[in-house]
Amino acid sequence: DSALAEAKTAALEIAAGNWRGPLHGVPIALKDNIDTAGVLTTAGSAVFADRIPTADAEVVRRLKAAGAVFLGKLNLHEFGNGATGAISHYGPVHNPWDQKRISGGSSGGSAAAVAAGLCYGALGTDTGGSIRIPASICGVVGLKPTYGLVSNLGVIPLSPTYDHVGPICRSARDASLML
User: Fold this and answer.
1) Residues 53-59: contacts with CB within 8 Å, 24+ apart?
2) 2 tagged catalytic
3) 36-47 pLDDT, tens digit each
């Protein structure tokens, strides 16, 4: 319901000539370790099964300002600590090209959703390959930005000095726009 309301607002803004840029009205999804005010954020763990943040992560705040439409949260390898996507309180993340195969991790839900065409792009996080591994396994583009280029404020950390937040999209151009 919130995504439909955001899309309607974006359509009205664009029709009125209030275009915010190339992500205005574009459907985006978020890895479930990125805080969104009022929305369950669990990092794929039963430990956070009832965790509802009161503030948006900085990346969410910026995407909202750009007019992106948020579709929801995406499953991940628990706490972002694994390369398969197979271990999560919510079950394993499957590869959209072959359900018997892994999606990669830890941002497997983000890569799988983009590869399946469920969203234009998704945010993932990368500490040791967690954007790049699932992007390559699912056949999409994942970008790990230079450390500090994208804020990780409001992201459940795995290793704060190594964590990065970045886009996963179907093309390098789309990843560039989302970045």
Assistant:
1) 53/154, 55/154, 56/154, 57/151, 57/152, 57/153, 57/154, 57/155, 57/165, 58/151, 58/152, 58/153, 58/154, 59/34, 59/123, 59/150, 59/151, 59/154, 59/155, 59/165
2) no
3) 999 999 999 999
Find the catalytic residue in 45, 107, 130, 144.
130
107 is catalytic: no
Is 144 known to be catalytic?
A: no
**Of 31, 64, 73, 144, which one is the catalytic site residue?**
31
| Predicted TM-score of the model (pTM) | 0.95
Catalytic residue among 45, 106, 107, 110: 106
Report pLDDT for 143.
98
User: Which residue numbers in the chain have pLDDT < 50?
Assistant: none
